[in-house]
DNA sequence: TCTCCTTATACTCTAGCTGAGTATATCCAG
DNA sequence: CTGGATATACTCAGCTAGAGTATAAGGAGA
């Protein structure tokens, strides 16, 4: 069988959470995600990415997960005979292992997606966005119903509740409606987040959505935590990722139901009030542990 | 930046469920998954796949989802200067739209994974498999604990329950332990399912795992159903995918809680006993509808 | 025609989980 | 020693999931 030829490129969304803020590693002063060629020396895609991330940041990536592979023709700047296949990955880095986390190179997620951070309530920018989206949705009938439903669902208007997992859907709607600079239409009058090179912001949206969904059923948060941490630090990290505030007593109950962590025996009084116990992740509890969450009515037969 | 050159290949896991059996479309008498080159004429990866699947099967693919992109060096049969990137997709086809579903070309999932079908109880083959896996896990101490935990968790031994979503983990363990023919070790004495070309069975395992997980929170089953169906037909389809039997009253309760379907007003008496009402999927309820399933303790502040 | 078998459909009950709120403990600063 | 801050423990109501039971309505065959 004949097989097409293409360039292969690896794109990384490296994420760390420092001081309760989610960050992404960037190049070109925050305008692009780091990327590199996939070459023959690399054993596999994943190890290829691991190698050059380690070269560039000097620190290991704990968790690495493939996100998506793109190859739309629009993205190609090559000759007519070649095109680029971009394979994107999500990588999680521990706070301590991200020494440049304050330096340029690391930028907060919510610079690019200000409407995604609901920790201090619904962002003001959302009213402008939803106004414009509803205007965009108000076309002739066949498409109108569909558009309206998508907008209301994705942005939690009317009776729908805000669903933090829909980051990608929201970005795509805004792209379709021409509200983000990358769409290339007339520049929007509201400043809808900082744009990025090519479709890099879309890839970041994919990563955020994936991570927000994943923390609910896999213990991946701990890849972002230092060795020892307090329960509130853990909660703040989850809140940073989800862009939401959580109910403290219930968060703690959930955590120790799962038996994912154990006390170190030490306490820290750097938290302001009563000293907090330090915990560590129970590596013994292993990564394989899925938190099930079955929605099927099983029977025991 | 320099970018590596590679061949690009699209691999499809096309699935249909006919008469309560999950099938996958194959070539070479069931030994391989259909695949085709990604070429310049294609607008995008997804549309490229859609086009040649439609050409080959003559029927449209309803639902199409990217699975994974592989590029391990072992898979390459090319010259030293090229390698192949394989992008795999999961596609769902309606029962009626799969005219070849009885003909050669379509094979049951469980020919390849007999240990995955628990609809008639725990398959007998599993005792042999778990014996051999436990023998394999019984090595010197540093690795033993980890191996034992993986085996027990993936195969639901001891206190762990069988988790149908772990199809890929189970296949990978069996591969590591040399229990599947593709591993290339000494041929296993138990016949652990029908092998496939290269890593195609691994890709099929990925597809099964993804689909089993997805039916729990997205209404993708309906992509596999005919226009009108009875509740038991729907249940049998879900059971076929999950490889499990479900509790009938609870299944029905779950379905109409979600308001995903509506009565057509007609009944069918082809089911043997009392005639069953026919239902159809409420397309109005739209694909965007995620069934949430949040595991985060949200607060209303 | 009546009985039995089969499938369809409706209802009940209980344990556990989730969302929400409240109460108590222990440090630091002034 | 008092107030502010954070940490930690406990309570309670409503919902949901798992499980079981009861009734309805067709067909096949005695």
Describe the fold and architecture.
The structure is a homodimer of 301-residue chains. Chain A is of the alpha+beta class and 301 residues long. Chain A folds into three domains: 7-111, Alpha-Beta Complex (Nucleoside Triphosphate Pyrophosphohydrolase), CATH 3.90.79.10; 119-192, no CATH class; 227-285, Arc Repressor Mutant, subunit A. The first copy, chain A, has eight helices and eight strands. In chain A, a hairpin with a 7-residue loop joins strand 7 (261-268) and strand 8 (276-281). In chain A, helix 4 packs antiparallel against helix 5 (167-176). The first copy, chain A, is globular, with a radius of gyration of 21 Å. At the A-B interface, strand 1, strand 3, strand 4, strand 5 and helix 4 of A face strand 1, strand 3, strand 4, strand 5 and helix 4 of B. Chain A binds a DNA duplex (30 and 30 nucleotides) through residues 230-232, 247-250, 252-254, 257, 269, 271-277, 297-300.
Could you write a compact summary of the structure shown?
With 301 residues, chain A is α+β, with helices and mostly antiparallel strands.
Could you name the key traits of this structure?
DNA-binding; homodimer; two-stranded antiparallel ribbon; Nucleoside Triphosphate Pyrophosphohydrolase; Arc Repressor Mutant, subunit A; alpha+beta; 301 residues; 3 domains
- Please name the CATH architecture of the largest domain in chain A: Alpha-Beta Complex
Oligomerization state: homodimer
Rounded Rg of chain A: 21 Å
E-strand count of chain A: 8
Our count of domains of chain A comes out at 3
Structural class of chain A: alpha+beta
- Helix-strand sequence of chain A: EEEHEEEHHHHHHHEE
* Poorly predicted segments of chain A: none
The helix count of chain A comes to 8
Fourth-tier CATH superfamily name of the largest domain in chain A: Nucleoside Triphosphate Pyrophosphohydrolase
Shape of chain A: globular
Biggest sheet overview of chain A: 6 strands, mixed
The overall pLDDT average of chain A reads 84
- The portion of residues assigned to helices of chain A is 25-40%
Could you tell me the CATH topology label of the largest domain in chain A: Nucleoside Triphosphate Pyrophosphohydrolase
- The end-to-end distance of chain A, rounded to whole angstroms, is 47 Å
Strand content range of chain A: 15-25%
CATH first level of the largest domain in chain A:
Alpha Beta
């Amino acid at each position: 069988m004949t097989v097409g030829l293409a360039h292969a490129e690896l794109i990384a969304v490296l994420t760390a959470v420092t001081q309760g803020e989610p960050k992404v590693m960037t190049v070109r002063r925050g305008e692009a995600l780091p990327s590199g060629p996939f070459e023959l020396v690399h054993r596999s895609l994943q190890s290829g990415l691991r190698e050059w991330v380690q070269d560039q940041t000097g620190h290991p990536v704990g968790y690495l997960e493939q996100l998506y592979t793109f190859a739309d023709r629009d993205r190609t700047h090559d000759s007519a005979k070649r095109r680029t296949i971009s394979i994107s990955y999500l990588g999680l880095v521990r706070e301590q292992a991200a020494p440049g986390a304050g330096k340029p190179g690391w930028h907060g997620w919510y610079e690019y997606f200000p409407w995604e951070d609901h920790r201090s309530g619904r962002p003001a920018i959302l009213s402008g966005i939803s106004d414009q989206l509803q205007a965009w949705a108000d076309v002739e009938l066949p498409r109108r119903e569909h558009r309206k439903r998508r907008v209301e669902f994705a942005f939690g208007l009317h009776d729908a509740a805000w669903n933090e997992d829909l980051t990608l859907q929201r970005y795509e709607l805004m792209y379709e409606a021409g509200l983000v600079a990358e769409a290339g239409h007339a520049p929007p009058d509201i400043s809808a987040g900082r744009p990025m090179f090519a479709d890099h912001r879309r890839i970041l949206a994919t990563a955020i959505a994936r991570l927000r969904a994943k923390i609910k059923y896999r213990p991946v948060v701990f890849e972002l935590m230092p060795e020892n941490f307090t329960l509130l630090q853990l909660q703040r990290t989850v809140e940073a990722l989800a862009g939401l505030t959580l109910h403290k007593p219930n968060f703690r109950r959930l955590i120790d139901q799962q038996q994912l962590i154990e006390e170190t025996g030490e306490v820290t009084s750097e938290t302001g009030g009563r000293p907090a116990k330090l915990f560590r992740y129970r590596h013994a509890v292993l990564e394989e542990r899925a938190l099930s969450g079955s929605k099927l009515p099983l029977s025991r037969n």
